[in-house]
Amino acid sequence: MKDGLEDVIACKTTISRIALENGRAILEYRGYDIRDLARKASYEEVAYLLLYGELPKKYELQDFKIELAERRELPPQIIGLLTHLPPYTHPMVVLRTATSYLGSLDKKIAVRTREETFNKAKDLIAKFPTIVAYYHRIRTGRNIIPPALEFSHAANFLYMLHGEEPTKTAERALDMDLILHAEHELNASTFAARIAASTLADIYACVVAATGTLMGPLHGGAAQEVMRMLREVASPRRAEEYVKRKIEAGERIMGFGHRVYRGVMDPRAELLRYLAKRLAAEGSTKWFEISEAIAKAAYKYKKLLPNVDFYSASVYANLGIPDDLFVNIFAMGRISGWTAHIIEQYENNRLIRPRAEYVGEKEKKFIPLSKR
Ligand SMILES: CC(=O)SCCNC(=O)CCNC(=O)[C@H](O)C(C)(C)COP(=O)(O)OP(=O)(O)OC[C@H]1O[C@@H](n2cnc3c(N)ncnc32)[C@H](O)[C@@H]1OP(=O)(O)O
Ligand SMILES: O=C([O-])CC(=O)C(=O)O
């Protein structure tokens, strides 16, 4: 067995498929190509698809959108929590703390019927953006902006964050970004959620496990690190020297490399590159140009290809999203994938409990405390 469970099949799923065919990566959600979903669907449609397994009919989508919109507002206790957390708390720590608190307020926390689990999943999908936007406004000393029922999931988040209705381009960019982040088979955070679900822990506990796991810089935390790199490089002219130096020092270039896309482009990175380029054309080209120069150098010096986190950084920067909210945006997309996996695990459950190969010392003679 390779370290890090590489190539190990740990469960069966019908939620997403990653495959390499004719040198090209395929990523499908419930059988639909990510490229089609990103171009033609909305985040709400994709969340429905992930949860229920089928694309919604028109009336089903309408009802689903209304239900999500009605679930957006936070209980006063959660707003109180966001007000009392220190302004230096990382927004991902806030998100997992607020998720846990939501669990403590749910009198039916232990009920795992299908209907109740779907209700809790929809609640979390609807409330994640509000937690993120409210905390950001509170920590920056501004008034919170209640959710607007008439706006889409993406538009409403930008509205609650910035306090003004977003442009159609900004709304569509975030919508597409959330679709691209919604699901990715057995990545580390989803696996963490499924492990928790396999003990029959409540859905909040599973989502807290996933949220904590996503935050690490080798996973979703990479997007914030990419932005740190873009700021450090500061100009396309300095990209090559930066990449060369990092690679010669044996360091990682954030936003590059992937466990399952080896030698092929992450299909989401291609779409995000297109999105980043389109946003740059309408706003500032600075971050996109630096990103392009870094990508060129990373390929030249180590044949490295960008992953989903790389171009997300310049997309978010051009949407006016602060760097330390980048992982939260990822979580706002991924919550629909996480909850779909938790439901799948509950419905086909067997405890996940692998073995470890013991490589330490054996059969040692106990030495009494007085003789050590
Ligand atoms: C949403 C997501 O989670 S996407 C991933 C986000 N994370 C990042 O962008 C962080 C940077 N990337 C990485 O650290 C890695 O590529 C990971 C963690 C994503 C995947 O790691 P693994 O599958 O364990 O790859 P592994 O460590 O085996 O790397 C294989 C080779 O590629 C190199 N490599 C992989 N990624 C990078 C990178 N970003 N920068 C430099 N070299 C890299 C490794 O050094 C290694 O080279 P070697 O064979 O010469 O030693
Ligand atoms: O699949 C992975 O290992 C990481 C990833 O790209 C994701 O979670 O979107």
List keywords for this structure.
372 residues; mainly alpha; Citrate Synthase, domain 1; Cytochrome p450-Terp, domain 2; EC 2.3.3.16; Citrate_synthase_sf; Citrate synthase; tricarboxylic acid cycle
Q: How is the secondary structure organized here?
A:
Elements lengths: L15 E6 L2 E6 L2 E2 H7 L2 H10 L5 H13 L5 H9 L6 H15 L8 H26 L13 H10 L5 H14 L6 H11 L4 H12 L7 H12 L5 H10 L18 H16 L3 H17 L5 H11 L7 H22 L25
Antiparallel strand pairs: 1-2, 2-3
Helix pairs in contact: 1-8, 2-16, 3-6, 4-6, 5-6, 5-10, 6-7, 6-16, 7-8, 8-13, 8-15, 8-16, 9-10, 9-16, 10-16, 11-15, 12-14, 13-15
Acetyl coenzyme *A (ACO) binds next to helix 15.
Pfam families: Citrate_synt
GO molecular function: citrate synthase activity
Protein name: Citrate synthase
